[in-house]
TrEMBL record:
Organism whose genome encodes this protein: Nocardioides islandensis
Keyword Membrane: yes
Transmembrane parts of this sequence: 12-33
Annotated GO biological process: lipid catabolic process
Highest classification ranks of the organism: Bacteria, Bacillati, Actinomycetota, Actinomycetes, Propionibacteriales
Name of protein: Lipase
InterPro entries the UniProt entry points to: AB_hydrolase_fold (IPR029058), Lipase_EstA/Esterase_EstB (IPR002918), Stereospecific_Lipase (IPR053228)
An example Gene Ontology molecular-function term: hydrolase activity
Key words, A-Z: Membrane, Transmembrane, Transmembrane helix
Amino acid sequence: MLDGLAPARRRFVLGVVGLVAVAIVCGGAAWWVSRDEPVDPVSQDERGPVLLVPGYGGGTAGLEVLAKALRAAGRDAVVVHLSGDGLGDLDAQARVLGEAVDSALGDTGAESVDVVGYSAGGVIARLWVRDHGGGSLARRVVTVGSPHHGTDLAGLASDVAPDECPVACQQLQPDSDLLRALNARDETPAGPAWVSMWTTDDQVVVPPTSADLAGAVDFSLQSVCPGLTVSHGDLPRSPVVAAAVAAELGVADPAVPGREICATS
């Protein structure tokens, strides 16, 4: 059929056909990359090591207090060290978490891990589960004071001093591209059991209800312990938080804890 066409028109038709072929191939590749990876949930009966993920800035001092409390309760607990200054791309930090998980599983011979994400560490944990294979490795994910829907402080920083708002700050703005995509579908991807606990006294995650996580066992500490005062920065150091996290990482199904955790304050 092409033989009857003038050379210039034949080249044009062949070029169009080539572009269509490239579009089909690329479209198929995009579909293959974007389709959901299969998830094989791990047993809830076998507890492996606990990995604690720091928040914005990567500070570990507070989480070391929580890790010590978990070790005293008989758990193998390790604090993950984020890359760089902890202010970079949260998705890149999710890959760091994945590497730490692989190392912990290799060291212990366990088949699964529990993950505790403090502040932005909870967002990192969700990214790891959703995009980096964590759904088949995490038994439970507990987030503590995490800005799952952003924090107004990050939005303010971006407006007032954009040069002082690094990548992670930009990603923690309400309705950022990263959070919009993370929350667009199931906020608690398949695989682990999910828990979100937070404090109504939070002045970093603003509003504190940004920590609400659809599909998780979700509660404020004050709903369990009325009158409790605990700031965002004190969450990983709080004995009440330590007791609540230890309870949620047990063998029983996650549930809003009873007031017995309040006696530890």
